[in-house]
Amino acid sequence: MMAQAAAQDFLLPVLDGQEDAPQILTFRLGQTVFGIDVRHVREVLDVTPITPVANAPASLVGMVDVRHEGVPVVDLKHKLRMGDTTGGGSDTRIVVLEIGAGDAPQVIAIIADAVLEVVEHDPATLESPPRFGEAWDASFIRGIGRRDQEFMTLLDIEAVFRPRDGMFDGG
Predict the structure, then answer these.
(1) pLDDT at 84
(2) 106/129 Cα distance (integer angstroms)
(3) Which of 17, 98, 133, 170 has its Cα between 20 and 30 A from that of 39?
(4) Backbone φ and ψ of 39, nearest 5°
(5) Separation CA 113–CA 90 (nearest Å)
């Protein structure tokens, strides 16, 4: 739906405590479908020039101007250790997020290979992250759902960006 509309910005609703029908922005990184609670999404933009930042962690691509505000742009594929982060076609978008509560939420942008749609989801239908005998950090996964015939990883975006050894751990 949204990936078909080119050359425009998408302003998305921020829901104020509506827990009865959570809405998820679905997007693609490579061939994998992810979802983020739409309450964290400020807007979705066409790709604009990104200015590199000296001595930045590998996951920090640079800064982008969003309505006269400098916003850090993170390569989420790199942060999630998904391998090759090159590429980007005509469906690539910048998703601007607000993370954290209080008077000054942190504004961060991520690069999505494609933004798919906003969908309602039933939290009861989510499966737990897979267990397969190895220890791995799945604390950033709220659950595994389905979008049509594909699996969708619902991210806890605040956990993805929770400070660890530095603001952009893993990069």
Answers:
(1) 66
(2) 27
(3) 170
(4) -65, -20
(5) 9
Residue 22 near residue 108 (C-beta atoms within 8 A):
no
Alpha helices of 5-162 — where are they, by DSSP H? 76-79, 157-160
Which stretches of the chain score pLDDT less than 50? 1-18, 165-171
Q: What is the pLDDT of residues 71-86, one digit of tens each?
A: 999 999 988 888 765 5
Structure token pair of residue 11: 């302003």
Question: How many Å apart are CA 169 and CA 92, to the nearest integer?
Answer: 24
CA distance 96 to 73: 9
Distance CA 50, CA 168 (A): 17
Cα–Cα distance measured from residue 86 to residue 146, given in angstroms and rounded to the nearest whole number = 26
Report CA-CA distances (Å) from 150 to 3, 10, 26, 27, 153.
17, 24, 12, 12, 10
% residues pLDDT > 90 (the chain): 45
Query: Tokens 């309450």 label which residue?
Result: 39
